UniProtKB/TrEMBL annotation:
This is Biotin-dependent acyl-CoA carboxylase, carboxyltransferase subunit. It holds the Pfam family Carboxyl_trans. PROSITE patterns: COA_CT_CTER, COA_CT_NTER. Residues 32-278 form the CoA carboxyltransferase N-terminal domain. The lineage of its organism: Bacteria, Pseudomonadati, Thermodesulfobacteriota, Desulfuromonadia, Geobacterales. It comes from Geobacter sulfurreducens (strain ATCC 51573 / DSM 12127 / PCA). GO terms for molecular function: propionyl-CoA carboxylase activity. Residues 289-560 form the CoA carboxyltransferase C-terminal domain. InterPro entries: AccD/PCCB, AcCoA_carboxyl_beta, ClpP/crotonase-like_dom_sf, COA_CT_C, COA_CT_N.
Length: 574
């Protein structure tokens, strides 16, 4: 006897059958009519996006290690979503996209998510309009946006309607850019418009085992004949390094929780400040660990050339050591992060000498420019931490446009209207110092550690400052070799060996003389004294007092700053 296959179902067999009555409680039931029929149809329409999906489709999502859109919403908040613009289009096609208002941590947040279990979450003209309407509402009401992207792209049977839908959504999202912040999570496999749209957002978060890009591997194969995997083409390692993705995480839950954490650092819109959070961490807490770090680094054999990880300093300054780094996989010679000082959200922009001496290249310049622009738009004060030997020189950087990238960074810094402080940790040389938030470019306050080495050039500057002495020293080498050879020959040494020995002695003498000039240059010019005398530096701060000094000054500056949208002319470049 063959057993009949059991079809999977979401219904609990022990639950009583659900029966929805469209009557008033306590009302005596009478003969039903057209009214009850209309109520039943309306109820079915409301329930359709959730209940019409077969268990097979849900299992497919779970088999691919993906959640349904409704499960993703529950990770964002335990509150019930206020679903808007429920179903549009022929056969209620709009159900492939969910749009809602969700309460996250007491804040209203506009949320959208593709429902991959319905027509692969594809976009046609109807749900493109749904997206545009949600974006416009977010901008009008001044609430942030979270997107959960999991779409096969434009719905091919809809023809140009799908492309028009995307274009309408593109336009609406661009118009609220700079008005309300947006966080985009990338799930599944997204290509074409499915990658353009989320990258219009403020931040993109991408989990492992996902893809997004201009085209998929199949198109690359057919057009270029190149075999490439989705991960190699548009996975998180690719986008994390290029900066297309601001954050890469392990899975969907991590992406959604990261989005909620990021949301806690950013304001609802460009007219208000970021959320203030009371802290039990005293503002006058001594930062002894910073002192220990610098002491161990600079007393080591490599002295003031010793690299160290600047994120340790950021951690020690922030409330309870908590900070949120953005684009951590890209251009690691610069650190961009949100943190709190005395409860106030602050943006940190720091050179990281642990990577490439903290030199600024094309990638780090653009990384800094983008972060600074966000803070400027959304009323977030910025603390710059400087420790760089300058812009990275060389053919490769010039061919990639370091002049353009460096100018983007400089422009973003000059345009800042929010409170901003520069803290010079160690090296501040040349053009990098001149374009890194000093008093002439608009800093509210410039502070420096006693370890500061502020100069037009690094040690190579001795060639210009002491050029006469260096010329005299180097000119003496030939005479020293000649005299040394004569002395050794007279003493009975063979001519070749005498010359070799004399040259070695002269080279060691020259090295010692140049080392002495290096030390003299560092002592006379590579220090904070001249900057302090000229007013380029406002004051010297001890490493153990950094949290208190920075915190008190940020609090003072923010008391006299009124959050508002940016005004004035918009510059030609961005």
């Amino acid at each position: 006897m063959s057993m009949k296959a059991i079809k999977p179902s979401l219904n609990n067999p022990f639950d009583p059958p659900e029966k929805v009555e469209f009557t008033i409680p306590g009302e005596i039931s009478r003969t039903t009519g057209p009214y009850e029929e209309a109520m039943k149809e309306g109820y079915d329409l409301i329930q359709r996006p959730i209940k019409s999906v077969s268990i097979d489709q849900i299992e497919k999502q779970h088999f691919k290690k993906r959640m349904t859109v409704w499960e993703r919403i529950k990770v964002l908040s335990d509150k019930e979503p206020n679903v808007l613009y429920q179903n549009w289009g022929k056969n209620l096609d709009g159900a492939s996209l969910v749009t809602a208002i969700l309460n996250i941590g007491g804040r209203d947040v506009a949320v959208y998510g593709h429902d991959f279990t319905v027509r692969a979450g594809s976009i046609d003209a109807t749900n493109g309009s749904k997206l545009a309407r949600l974006f416009n509402m977010a901008g009008e009401k001044g609430i942030p946006l979270i997107g959960m992207n999991d779409s096969a792209g434009a719905f091919v049977p809809a023809g140009v309607g799908g492309l028009d839908g995307y274009a309408e959504a593109f336009t609406a999202l661009r118009k609220i850019s700079g008005v309300v912040p947006s966080i985009m999570c990338m799930f599944g496999f997204n290509a074409g418009g499915g990658s353009y749209l989320p990258r219009q957002g403020s931040f993109v978060i991408q989990p492992a085992d996902t893809f997004f890009g201009l085209t998929g591997p199949g198109v690359v194969k057919s057009v270029l004949g190149e075999d490439i995997t989705p991960d190699e083409l548009g996975g998180p390692k690719v986008h994390g390094k290029s900066g297309v993705a601001d954050l890469t995480v392990s899975d969907e839950v991590a992406a959604l929780r990261t989005a909620v954490r990021l949301l806690s650092y950013i304001p609802d819109n460009n007219s208000v400040g970021a959320p203030f959070q009371e802290t039990s961490d005293p503002l006058n807490r001594k930062t002894w660990e910073i002192n220990t770090l610098l002491k161990k680094a600079f007393n080591s054999p490599t002295g003031f050339n010793t690299p160290f990880d600047v994120s340790i300093i950021i951690q020690q300054i922030c409330d309870h050591g908590d900070y949120f780094e953005l684009q951590p996989e890209r251009a690691k010679e610069a650190v961009t992060a949100f943190g709190r000082l005395g409860g106030q959200v602050v943006g940190f922009v720091a050179n990281n000498s642990a990577v490439a001496s903290g030199q600024i290249d094309c990638d780090s310049a653009v990384k800094i420019a983008r972060f600074v622009r966000f803070c400027n738009i959304y009323n977030i004060p910025i603390i710059f931490m400087e420790d760089t030997t300058g812009f990275l020189p060389g053919r490769e950087q010039e061919s990639r446009g370091i002049v353009q990238a460096g100018r983007s960074m400089l422009d973003a810094i000059v345009d800042v209207r929010t409170p901003r402080i520069l803290l010079i940790l160690r090296n501040a040389f040349g053009g990098a110092y001149a374009s890194y938030n000093n008093y002439p470019t608009g800093a509210d306050l410039v502070l420096a550690l006693p370890t500061t080495r502020l100069a037009v050039m690094g040690p190579a500057g001795k060639e210009f400052v002491y050029k006469d002495e260096i010329r005299k020293i180097r000119g003496a080498v030939a005479d020293m070799v000649k005299k040394g050879v004569e002395e050794r020959t007279k003493a009975g040494m063979e001519a070749g060996a005498a010359k070799k020995d004399a040259e070695k002695e002269a080279a060691e003498w020259l090295k010692g003389q140049e080392a002495a000039l290096n030390q003299r240059y560092e002592k006379e010019l590579m220090n904070p004294k001249e900057g302090l005398a000229l007013g380029s530096i406002s004051s010297i701060v001890m490493p153990t007092d950094l949290r208190q000094v920075l915190g008190e000054n940020i609090a003072f500056l923010m008391r006299h700053y009124k959050p508002s949208p940016m005004c004035g002319p918009q510059r030609e470049f961005h």
